[in-house]
Write a structure and sequence with these properties.
about 200 residues; 2 domains; binds zinc ion
Length: about 200
């Protein structure tokens, strides 16, 4: 969903826009994630959401023309957290896996599948905002449990993987590690990428 909806190529969006009612939620999800989160914010670098107050105000003015959806985007701190219909689009495609697991794996399987399927939305909501901060600041500002997680190897690797997604939008879509390898969308950071991460205050160890 992240690759084919949230970061859908312009050509795909042109196709959706021919049927705006039918594809309304896909168009909105792609706008808030790809246009606002990837393009209109974090222009300077991965850890600077706006270069100036004027830049934020210009985006606010544009979002005001998007009615209720614009307001939802603003309230999600410009699509840094899950929000509105975006969260539905995020979670809905995962739901058919639950009855499937019940049929094939029984009740223990359902518990396992639910826990696993909860990870992408949970990470997007509670971890993603801190991936756009230097490590020291993230650890300082996050609630204590989140801060403890952010210091672990897994979450330090997640921060690097997410840096790579913003740097090269066609790869490294997943916050859950390993999923990009399975989907052959993993791009390893180069020495230059690692140097830039270090300059921004991300942990590269
Ligand atoms: Zn993206
Ligand atoms: Zn991001």
């Amino acid at each position: 969903m992240h690759q084919h909806v949230s970061d859908a190529p312009n050509k795909t969006v042109k196709g959706w826009e021919r049927f705006p009612r039918l594809f309304r939620y896909l168009i909105r999800t792609r706008f808030s994630h790809h246009v606002v989160h990837h393009r209109r914010t974090f222009k300077q670098d991965h850890i600077t959401q706006f270069r100036s107050e004027a830049e934020r105000e210009a985006l606010d003015l544009e979002l005001a023309t998007h009615g209720a959806h614009g307001e939802i985007i603003r309230r999600s701190n410009y699509a840094v957290r899950l929000h509105g219909s975006g969260s539905l689009v995020f979670v809905a495609p995962l739901l058919p896996a639950i009855p499937l697991a019940a049929m094939l794996l029984g009740s223990a399987g359902v518990v396992g599948v639910c826990l696993t399927l909860a990870l992408p939305p949970l990470f997007s909501q509670f971890i993603h905002p801190y991936l756009h901060m230097p490590h020291e600041r993230a650890v300082r500002e996050a609630p204590s449990i989140t801060a403890w997680l952010l210091k672990r190897t897994y979450f330090r690797a997640m921060a690097r993987n997410h840096y790579m997604h913003h740097r090269y939008v066609a790869s490294n879509f997943n916050l859950v590690l390993g999923a990009d390898h399975l989907r052959r969308r993993y791009r390893a950071p180069s020495a230059a990428d690692l140097a830039e991460m270090q300059r921004l205050g991300l942990r590269i160890d």
